[in-house]
């Protein structure tokens, strides 16, 4: 859906939402309920911290998060959830459920994958960890731990007050490029969900609802003929030449594609020795744009660049689409509920030691904002343009009303996917933000279980936003999960 279409859809959704007359809560949530939930999260904070820091230490990349997933599953089982592991063909994915009779189905998402190349100690200076490659530069160690903490506390409130409905936690692997949630959506695991909640580590506290970029990602593998590069070069056909010519062709393509398109790549395998003509080379590409149809069209042109490069170099090429996601559909109805609860929870107060840690991190940044911004909540709004990243949460947002928030787990001014974020996510700064997120998620879940009118409005907004006759079809087609997408190319020749 194009940004202009999204704007019109949002207006229609707002008008539709206004047609619903306010209704009384089925069982209104009281101030005593909120106090109980917040106290329960506080009591569970040590377990949230324990899980977050252990997963930080595991630093497992997409579809390899065996220990991380098992840890969260164990916490949920101990709390009385029924857990089904290995769903949708993903060994580290799971669905945990607590059901108390008929009622709304509310889902909370939990992530836990790390990023390659970002191993870093929990120190405010750049310090790689010897023998370790990956690190939690996006804070997913905090994400999964806090989501499980929120669910455990919300379940306790449901039991105490005999709240009807079903609470689910979806353990979702490989968000970073593996599109883990897409396979869960494609398998129909969200078809009966009434609303989905998520959060993400951030450098500020915010319930702003915004769009993201749709994307397709994949790997182009060129196959040639090896030969001595000096003694018999005429007998060789360089797979690396194929990759490099493809990259040149794609870079010239940038002038002739729609505005807001992003293309980026990295050569993941290019040979082992200069005097050997490489018979194998691989390049990993992303194409992004707000409109999924533009992504598909540009991706097709990138594939043509690969075919042309193979023809020019006498090599062959095969393509594997490893990921693909929609653009996020914000939900203003749920966003306002989330924002109200975030304001009830409030900002974050750091100790003098944490402030010193943050300020030392900020010496490595350019014009960072004040560390005091973590004490505040950003003004609420809904943004229908922009969005520099992509997320597989987007596919969920097209099949069920979805809402998210961010809390200050990182040092203000730090960039995403950075060693600075890894450091903060592995110490108390990250954990404090995660606990705030758990509180906000739990309060919002309680509101949705208690107020069916809000869920009804959120569904009406989704219907208006995505347009009539929508049928979900995954951007990555019908391929099985790319379970080896993080494995070295040489290991899969």
Describe this protein's structure.
The protein is built from 13 helices and 12 strands. It is α/β, with parallel strands linked by helices and 493 residues long. The protein has 2 domains: 350 residues, Aminopeptidase (3-Layer(aba) Sandwich); 109 residues, Alpha-Beta Plaits, CATH 3.30.70. Helix 4 links the parallel strand 3 and strand 4. Helix 4 runs parallel beside helix 12. The relative contact order is 0.20. The N terminus is likely disordered. InterPro entries: Amidohydrolase, Aminobenzoyl-glu_utiliz_pB, Bact_exopeptidase_dim_dom, Peptidase_M20, Peptidase_M20/M20A_hydrolases, Peptidase_M20_dimer. One of its GO terms (biological process) is folic acid catabolic process. It holds the Pfam family Peptidase_M20. This is Amidohydrolase.
Brief overview, please?
This protein is of the alpha/beta class and 493 residues long. It contains 13 helices and 12 strands.
């Amino acid at each position: 859906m194009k940004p202009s279409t999204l704007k019109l859809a949002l207006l229609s959704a707002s008008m539709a939402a206004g047609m619903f007359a306010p209704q009384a809560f089925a069982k209104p949530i009281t101030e005593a309920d909120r106090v109980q939930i917040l106290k329960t999260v506080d009591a569970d904070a040590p377990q949230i911290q324990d899980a977050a820091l252990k997963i930080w230490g595991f630093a497992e990349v997409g579809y390899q998060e065996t220990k991380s997933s098992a840890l969260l599953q164990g916490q949920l089982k101990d709390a009385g959830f029924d857990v089904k592991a290995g769903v949708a063909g993903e060994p580290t994915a799971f669905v945990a459920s607590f059901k108390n009779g008929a009622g709304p189905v509310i889902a909370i998402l939990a992530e836990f994958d790390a990023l390659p190349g970002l191993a870093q100690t929990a120190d405010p200076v750049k310090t790689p960890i010897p023998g370790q490659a990956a690190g939690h530069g996006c804070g997913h160690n905090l994400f999964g731990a806090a989501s499980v903490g929120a669910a455990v506390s919300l379940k306790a409130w449901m039991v105490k007050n005999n709240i009807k409905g079903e609470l689910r936690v979806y353990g979702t692997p490989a968000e970073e490029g593996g599109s883990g949630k897409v396979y869960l959506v494609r398998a129909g695991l969200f078809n009966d969900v009434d609303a989905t909640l998520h959060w993400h580590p951030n450098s500020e506290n915010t319930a702003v609802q915004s769009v993201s970029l749709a994307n397709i990602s994949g790997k182009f593998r060129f196959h040639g003929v090896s030969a001595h590069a000096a003694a018999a070069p005429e007998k060789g056909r360089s797979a690396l030449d194929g990759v490099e010519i493809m990259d040149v062709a794609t870079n010239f393509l940038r002038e002739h594609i729609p505005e807001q398109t992003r293309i980026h790549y990295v050569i993941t395998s290019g040979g082992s020795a200069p005097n050997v003509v490489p018979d194998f080379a691989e390049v990993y590409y992303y194409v992004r744009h707000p409109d999924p149809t533009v992504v598909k069209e540009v991706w097709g042109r990138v594939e043509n660049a690969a075919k042309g490069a193979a023809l020019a170099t006498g090599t062959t090429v095969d393509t594997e689409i490893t990921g693909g996601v929609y653009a996020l559909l914000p939900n203003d109805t749920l966003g306002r509920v989330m924002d109200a609860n975030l304001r009830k929870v409030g900002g974050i107060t750091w100790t003098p030691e944490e402030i010193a840690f943050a300020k030392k991190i900020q010496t490595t940044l350019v014009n960072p904002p004040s560390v005091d911004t973590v004490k505040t909540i950003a003004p609420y709004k809904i943004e229908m343009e922009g969005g520099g990243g992509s997320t597989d949460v987007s596919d969920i947002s097209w099949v069920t009303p979805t809402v998210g928030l961010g809390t200050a787990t990182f040092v203000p001014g730090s960039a995403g996917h950075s060693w600075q974020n890894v450091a903060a996510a592995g110490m108390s700064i990250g954990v404090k933000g995660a606990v705030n997120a758990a509180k906000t998620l739990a309060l919002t879940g309680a509101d949705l279980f208690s107020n069916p009118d809000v869920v009804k409005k959120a569904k009406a907004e989704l219907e208006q936003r995505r347009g009539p006759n929508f049928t979900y079809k995954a951007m990555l087609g019908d391929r099985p999960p790319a379970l080896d997408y993080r494995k070295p190319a040489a290991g899969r020749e």
